[in-house]
Amino acid sequence: MTTGGLIERLRTGLWKDNPGLVQLLGLCPLLAVTTTTINGVGLGIATLLVLTCSNALVSATRRWIRQEIRIPIYVLIIASLVTCVELIFKAWFPTLDRSLGIFIPLIVTNCAIVARAEIFASRNTIGASIVDGLGMGAGFAALLIVLGVFRELVGQASILGYSFAESGFLLAILPPGAFFALALAVALKNRIDRKPGR
Amino acid sequence: MEFARREAPYIRPNVGVGSMMLQVLAALIPAALAHVWYFGPGFLFNLIIATAFCVGSETLMMRARGRDPMVALSDYSAIVTAALLAFALPSLTPWWVTATGALFAIVVAKHLYGGLGFNVFNPAMVGYVVILVAYPMEMNLWVAPRMGDIDYISLSVLQTIKYTLTGSLPDALTFDAISRATPLDAMQSGLRNMRTYAEVRTNPMMGDFGGRGWEWISNFFAFGGAWLLVKKIIRWQIPTGVLLGLLIPAGLFYIISPGSNASPGFHLFSGATILCAFFIATDPVSAATSPKGRFVYGCGIGFLIFAIRKWGSFADGVAFAVLMMNMATPAIDYITRPHIVGHSRRSDKP
Q1: A99, B149, B288, B313: most buried, per Cβ within 10 A?
Q2: Could B100 and A170 be called an inter-chain contact, meaning their C-beta atoms sit closer than 8 Å?
Q3: Residue of B nearest to A154 (CA)
Q4: Could you tell me the residue ranges of all domains in chain B?
């Protein structure tokens, strides 16, 4: 893969086809855990790890996976990787693991990951698939972190747990706040993408 | 999105949106006066703040959308939204709470959806629900109504202004001293704590049917609503639907078990039932449009109000009921499309 193609691939994942902002995939964890920055970072990194590794594994085994049963196989691969990540989190970041709770195991059902396996990794080389996984994973993680920072800032008036005001605007950390924040982020992206002069 | 549409021919009424909205505002005046009499001048300050923020944000949003602000302002719909929001608030509400509700109502619920005529949800109710969820403590500060025979602490005009601007009470007073559980709160928690309906009714806050003060304000809402019906600003289907949808299940439960259920009269004269039936549910934009559809829409709201009051965690459910039925409006309009003369009843084809 050329450097130009590599940068283009990363750009696609991070901005142009961002899984959260453009494809609107994986919204369940996106909306549910982004109440604080640290939750966003935690789930973002976990998803990035799983997505990169699953893309690599699916791409490496693509010759032997039969077309008819490909989805169960993908789920099996992703589930094994998620289990590894979950054990890593439990061993080294027990507090974070407790606050993310069910959403670490639920990465298995994150459709952004299956979508990349199906759309990209199953028909491209290992190298390209890893780059794609990194780009898409980083794009998803970036959105999680942005939403986490925004909602923590507005909802609890604190940054990374250091509060600077007595109380925030409670709605931002409640479920409706997640939808509002995501809608604002999508609108902002569309606004930036819109060509000037139109 | 394609929604079901009413078919031609249309009859053009000779009243504009502006004069309709002005008549709605006029119909609210008796209830507003009653509200000030029973709960103090706080209502007026809430109304001023809500109007200022609704009109201000409407102007800014029209500018941002590249349109003439006067087009939107001259139909007075922002002021009706502000008035409905002010009626929903406790009479003592800090200004930032009111302002947040007004901004959400106009900016999010109205203009982000495309302005008047395109808003899927009732703007005033969206604003109210947002602040109800975001500021639960401030939104629970209901003072006792003026009741001749019982001592109650009321704030003077200056103290009310101070609370509205700063959110702090006079030194000697606490929230607990001036706030009372509303009749609906008292009824809900009383019945859930295994007290009987008759026992809860011995609470001095209770009046002939609903709560004292509240039932009289409801009467004035009904009076204004009747005038709107006579002037044909609103149709009879929605208010009838709301009241039947609430009274029939309430009546059935009361007949089966009069001890553990509030009477239909209590439901009718408590909280925002009448305000909802005549002024909130009848919002011409977010309600269903066919005659049959309006009735179904009203019944749905009435039943949901009953369900939330009986089984829900909030004492009154008007705002949630209206928003939920707003979501169902396109489906109701689709199912209850009126039959077109000359077309077969089974299908749209001639």
Answers
A1: B288
A2: no
A3: B134
A4: 17-179, 214-338
B223 in Cβ contact with B279 (< 8 Å) = no
Take residue A58 and report the two structure tokens written for it: 């699916």
- Mean pLDDT, rounded, for B173-190: 83
pLDDT at residue B167, as a whole number: 84
CA-nearest residue of chain B to A175? B133
Place of tokens 């959110």: B167
Collapse the DSSP code of B43 into the 3-class scheme (helix H, G, I; strand E, B; otherwise coil) and give the result: helix
The answer, for A170 touching chain B at a CB cutoff of 8 Å, is yes
Query: What is the β-pairing status of strands A158-159 and A162-163?
Result: antiparallel
Residue B109: closest C-alpha in chain A: A180
CB contact under 8 A, A171 and B134: yes
Cα–Cα dist B323/B121, whole Å: 6
Beta bridge partners of B206: B211
What pLDDT does residue A137 have? 94
User: B100 CB near a chain A CB, below 8 Å?
Assistant: yes
- Judge whether B108 is closer than 8 Å to chain A, CB to CB: yes
Alpha-carbon distance of B181 to B155, in angstroms, equals 18
| Domain parsing of chain A, residue ranges | 9-191
Confidence at residue B13, expressed as pLDDT on a 0 to 100 scale: 67
Record the tokens describing residue B29, joined without a space.
């005046």
Mean pLDDT of the region B53-61: 96
Q: Decide if A184 touches B, using CB distance below 8 A.
A: no
User: B254: which residues sit within 8 A by CB, 6+ positions away?
Assistant: B261, B262, B263, B264
* Encoded tokens for A97: 């693991």
pLDDT band at B345 (very low <50, low <70, confident <90, very high): low
Could you tell me the end-to-end alpha-carbon distance of chain A, in angstroms, rounded to an integer? 36
Q: Check if A69 contacts B (Cβ < 8 Å).
A: no
Q: Provide the 10 A C-beta neighbour count for residue A126.
A: 15
Q: Which residues of B touch A171 (CB under 8 A)?
A: 130, 133-134
ipTM exceeds 0.85? no
Is the pLDDT score of B316 beyond 60?
yes
Dump pLDDT digits (tens) for A102-158: 888 988 888 889 999 999 999 999 999 999 999 999 999 999 999 999 999 998 888
Interface membership of B130 toward A (CB under 8 Å): yes
pLDDT tens profile B18-29 = 899 999 999 999
Asked whether residue B171 carries a pLDDT value surpassing 80, the answer given is no
Chosen from B130, B131, B137, B320 to mutate, greatest number of chain A CBs within 10 A = B130
Contact A176/B at CB under 8 A: yes
Q: State the smallest CA–CA distance between residue A146 and chain B in angstroms.
A: 21
Minimal Cα distance from A156: which residue of B?
B134
